[in-house]
Specification:
It is built from 15 helices and 11 strands. It has a 7-stranded mixed beta sheet with strand order 1-7-6-5-4-2-3, with helices on both faces. A 4-stranded antiparallel beta sheet has the order 8-9-11-10. The radius of gyration is 24 Å and the shape is globular. It binds pyridoxal-5'-phosphate.
């Protein structure tokens, strides 16, 4: 492709992108293709001869778009959002154009230094202590893995990296019953083992029960286990419950256990002074992750990982082959030492673009709005006798179910599951579920970039009508 052809196709694609953003609401939010449908439409063999790029654009519309679930659709209330925004997309285009691989400072000093600066901005924005430093990881799963690996090394005097786990004792990791599955994955990868992840029961608001955590650690110590890391969740995936950080922190401090905070989605709310209470006890935190790629309008992937003591992180991950030795080593941040991958994308650029384009005030306004529409939805649901709210609505997640009068308890789960499928098949809205206290629970997350109160009200009308129509 010549530079002129590139310019021509790029303009065409930018028009395509702008039209998509304008019209995203017209698509069915959840793709309804059948398994194998897209696969079968793609030729079994790659083309032998070069094809015109126009064919690629045609196939984008013909083959790919029907198989896309539209995460930027204002009817997207599922999972947690994976928001993007125009400033994020524009910066991502530059990142792809530069094609820089930013593993060490020398391979793009601007990438390393922008990352350092933007992460300090973000640290201050979310109110973490000024002693913390940050690094961008691909996902919260990777950040939590990095946290548990560092905790493992600290707990064993940095011996497992060298000696393997033999004779290191049996390490234990703790999180609530509602903690994310990335913790299960991390304990497997770290060699700690699934059976040494202790799931602590939750209280009635689905937050970790600190008294039970303390009991678990005490009895583990008695049984000669080595408590190594506690993961507190600020905004659990099921219901956005907030674990009691201060109480957990005191326990971690008493038993010298690493405290990692998983605030993957809800961390963005910390930019609001009125949500700073979620990190009361922040002095106890050793590491903290939240995803600007969830709620903070920065397209996937961009996970902000902060640590109190970068030296321990670097000591855990540092490897120095001959080909990576540089004259600047020790004077600059070489982020390859701050996590699992060597190669790194230039992700700080989109974060910079988003924060500058919205301004911190604009970010706060938008996030407050999302929180306010969740509160409104919760009010609307509470007014109806045949619906019930199943968890406290603190941020942007509303958990509820349909509960028509007179229906036997055992019929409620299948009824709500059926309701969920019918709603999702409608193409108008997309919700996902969880199970709380054995109850099939619909969750509605109001954090999508484009969602407004009008969309939430429309969705609620659809939910009510559909529910009542399938009651029998
Ligand atoms: C609380 C929590 N932690 C971690 C994750 C994993 O995030 P990622 O996809 O960035 O690994 C999620 C995903 O939704 C989450 O809800």
């Amino acid at each position: 492709m010549t530079p002129d052809e590139f310019r021509q196709y790029a303009h065409k694609l930018v028009d395509w992108m702008a039209a998509y953003m304008e019209n995203v609401e017209k698509y069915p939010v959840k793709s309804s293709v059948k398994p194998g449908e897209v696969f079968d439409r793609i030729p079994a063999d790659p083309p032998e001869k070069a094809e015109s790029f126009s064919r690629f654009i045609e196939d984008l519309d013909e083959i790919i778009m029907p198989g896309i679930t539209h995460w930027q659709h204002p009817g997207f209330f599922a999972y947690f959002p994976a928001n993007t925004s125009p400033p994020s997309i524009l910066a991502e285009m530059v990142t792809a154009t530069l094609g820089a691989q930013c593993m060490i400072w020398e391979t793009s000093p601007a990438a390393a230094e922008l990352e350092e600066r933007v992460m300090l901005w973000l640290r201050d924005l979310v109110g973490l202590p000024a002693s913390f430093e940050g690094v961008i990881q691909d996902t919260a799963s990777t950040a939590t893995l990095a946290a548990i690996l560092t905790a493992r090394e600290k707990a064993t005097n940095f011996s497992i990296n060298n000696n393997g786990a033999n004779n290191a004792g049996t390490l234990r990791v703790y999180c609530s019953e509602q903690g994310h599955s990335s913790v299960d994955k991390a304990v497997r990868i770290c060699g700690i083992g699934s059976q040494n992840l202790v799931r602590i029961p939750v209280k009635s608001d689905f937050s970790l029960d600190e008294a039970k955590l303390k009991d678990a650690i005490k009895s583990d110590i008695k049984a000669a286990y080595l408590p190594c890391c506690v993961i507190a969740t600020i905004g659990t995936t099921g219901s956005a419950a907030i674990d009691p950080l201060e109480a957990i922190g005191e326990i971690c401090s008493e038993y010298r256990t690493w405290l990692h905070v998983d605030a993957a989605m809800a961390g963005t709310a910390l930019i609001l002074p009125e949500f700073q209470w979620m990190i009361n006890g922040k002095k106890y935190i050793d590491s903290f992750v939240f995803n600007p790629h969830k709620w903070m309008f920065t397209n996937f992937d961009c996970s902000a990982y902060f640590v109190k003591d970068p030296e321990s992180l670097i000591k855990t991950f540092e490897i120095l082959p001959e080909y990576l030795k540089t004259r600047t080593r020790g004077k600059v941040n070489d982020y390859r030492d701050w996590g699992v991958p060597l190669g790194r994308r230039f992700r700080a650029l989109k974060l910079w673009s988003v924060i500058r384009s919205y301004g911190t005030e604009g970010l706060r306004t938008r996030i407050r709005y999302h929180i306010s529409i969740a509160a409104r939805l919760s009010e609307l649901i509470s007014k109806e006798d045949d619906f019930e709210i199943l968890a406290p609505v603190v941020i942007n997640v509303v958990c509820f179910r349909y509960k028509p009068e007179g229906l036997q308890a055992e019929k409620l789960n299948p009824l709500n599951e059926k309701l969920n499928h019918i709603l999702n098949d409608s193409g108008k809205i997309y919700l996902t579920h969880t199970v709380l206290n054995g109850k099939y629970t619909l969750r509605m997350v109001t954090g999508q970039t484009n969602v407004t109160l009008a969309h939430v009200e429309m969705a609620w009308d659809l939910i009510r009508q559909t529910a009542r129509s399938i009651k029998k």
